[in-house]
Amino acid sequence: MFAGLLALIIDQDLTRKENMCSREGREIPFPTPIILKNSQKINNRLSKVESQMKLVVLVAQSGISLKGPLQIVLKTLDVLALVRDVIRLLIKDNSVSRFEWLYHMQFYLEVSVANPIESLSIHMANAVFPYGFKYLGTFDFQATGRIFVGLFQVGAWGYFDGANRLEERILSAVSHLIQSIKLGLGAISFDQSAEVEIVGKTLWINTNRGIVITMNPGYAGRSYLPDNLKLFRSMAMTCPIGGAIIASVDQREQCILIQSVTETIVSKLVAEHLKEHIHHIVSERHLVVGNVWSQKVPYVYQIQNIQHRLMMVGPLATGKTGAWRALLGALGSLVGLKVVSYVVDSKAISKDFVYDSLNPTTPEWNFGLFTNIICKIIDNVGDEVSKQHWIIFMAIVLDNNKLLTLPIGKRLGLPNNV
What we know:
4 domains
């Protein structure tokens, strides 16, 4: 009924419910304990639990609102600190014609101008235009081209958020522009003096440039990604770890970013003792391994640490099953615990036996093999050929919330060891 609620804590006398416990083990006390003898029916108890949960949420929200003024002060201090640093840089340059002065955006208020819309103007480099109130113009192909020209000449990184929100005609033109830039970069790798043509301008590209595109391709109202943009290296974002962020406040952001990218893409930074256990398990099973296969096993370990779902795809007899079995045995040997895996072959039994089914005669819900395994709260590994109807059923449990919702309304939460 409540996805984030794992259990209710009852006092030693078994007379009242005092706390609620989440899946992560955090206990939150009720503002008013629920007396069991006053609520004999289960629906009345659940209603009181829901009321207490709403009170806890209201208390938390009221606490956040009290911190609002302090947060505003902190944000204002951050802005003022940035302005202070800019002013210090401008003081060092005593000429308004120097580049260090011109490349900062400046706002000027002319009190003598009667029209309030034209009284505030923006100055940057040699460009001057009125600020107005709000810009409601369109973002077209030419505007994107001018951005690319500036980025690649300066050698900066461009971050385009929600690129597929553009109209299809504009997105197609932009993708063609990016493709021509990528072809030009390929030519520069062989000839450093090569030039690239962008929106009718022939220019030299700084090799320190970069393009980052973020998008939500599954959302309604988004345009389809052109094929020439699919040549970009794709990366999937995962949920951030709050504890790691708080513990690394004093560390440099660049070092943390490089470490995260390395662990995700390279996936070779595995502890040496784990590698030793993997080689030991392989030797015990009298397996002959190659360098490529031995590198894939630590790769599986790294990906499993990031995501709780993992699909191993490849031709027959390439060592997929041997890889996860060797890794499972190595982890069991490393931590000194017995590890259990269940191999489910969907080709040997029907879908109703693997998952769940409803008996049309008795209207009784029968749990399948997979659901029973989840109920036992143990590790589970499926070794099978992927088919569409298996993927549709598994999609609900492969999501980040790690919840398997059955058609009868029951919810099964996957623990961290699955």
